[in-house]
Design brief:
Pfam families: Hydrolase_3
Oligomer: single chain
CATH topology of the largest domain: Rossmann fold
Strand order of the largest sheet: 5-4-3-2-1-12-13-14
InterPro entries: Cof, HAD-like_sf, HAD-SF_hydro_IIB, HAD_sf
Organism: Paenibacillus sabinae T27
Structural class: alpha/beta
Protein name: Cof-like hydrolase
Keywords: Hydrolase
Shape: globular
CATH architecture of the largest domain: 3-Layer(aba) Sandwich
Helix content: 25-40%
């Protein structure tokens, strides 16, 4: 098989709009692994809600979570690498969110903290329940015992547009990524899906030209650009399609299966 490492985004790519894994995508992934390919998830999700998808596909190996800020080995859930953020550098962003009633959370590799767990909005509660995550209230920075890897804000698309525009005018101490219509993520300046994929490929002894990646959103651009073959879903924004080598079908049309069959299994 030409491509030995296959990196798949999850939401909007591997899963359909109802957040289900189709039998077609599952079978294509299974056949790729039977033929010797290594399939990894490269997602903005926390590792905890990426592991069940790996399990559903019968995969071991690695998850590149939190937009590449954390790489975790699935078998023993060991953190292989993480990009640590300076929590105190988040203070102006937290003030901005509090002043504008924008929800935020602070993430370590496996834990998630919100401003006050007792006062979560209904939308935030629904989101965490859907993702099967249980947040805790944000402690003081000096009380953290694990590295902080991601800061996520969640609100309406208009508020996210405005926040991203304003934050891009600030001194750039973090990598600011739009990970969804209603989400903006801040991470270590070097944290990205592309850098995590590059690091994992090097660790596994796999050449860049032997890497294939599939994604659909702005936070996928770095891994599409790194891979020997970067594939954008047809439901991607134009800027994401422009960063890719080829386009496959949408996430509701089993675009992942279509791409794997064409480029890995033919």
């Amino acid at each position: 098989m030409k491509y030995k490492l296959i990196a798949l985004d999850v939401d909007g790519t591997l899963l359909n709009d109802d957040h289900f894994l189709s039998p077609e995508n599952k079978e294509a992934v299974a056949e790729v692994t039977r033929q010797g390919g290594r399939v990894v998830l490269c997602t903005g999700r926390n590792p905890k809600n990426a592991f069940p998808i790996m399990e559903e596909m019968g995969l071991t190996g690695h998850v590149l979570a939190d937009n590449g800020a954390v790489t975790v080995r699935v078998e023993d859930q060991k953190v292989i690498h993480q990009y640590e953020m300076d929590g105190r550098g988040l203070d102006p962003y937290i003030r901005y969110c509090r002043e504008r009633d924008i929800h935020f959370d602070v993430n370590t590799a496996f834990e998630l903290y919100v401003d006050n767990v007792e006062y979560l909005t209904q939308e935030a509660r629904f989101m965490y329940e859907h993702l099967e995550l249980v947040p805790a209230s944000l402690p003081a920075w000096e009380e953290f015992r694990e590295p902080i890897v991601k800061f996520t804000v969640f609100s309406t698309a208009d508020k996210m547009d405005e926040a991203q525009r304003e934050w891009n005018t600030w001194l750039q101490t973090f990598n600011i990524q739009r990970s969804g219509e209603f989400f903006v993520d801040l991470m270590h300046p070097e944290a990205s899906k592309g850098n995590a994929l590059k690091q994992l490929a090097k660790q596994l002894g796999i050449r860049q030209e032997e890497v294939l990646s599939i994604g659909n959103y702005y936070n996928d651009i770095s891994m599409l650009a790194f891979a020997g073959l970067g594939i954008a879903m047809d439901n991607s924004p134009l800027e994401v399609k422009a960063a890719a080598d080829v386009i496959t079908g949408t996430n509701n049309e089993n675009g992942v299966s279509e791409a794997l069959i064409k480029y890995c299994l033919s």
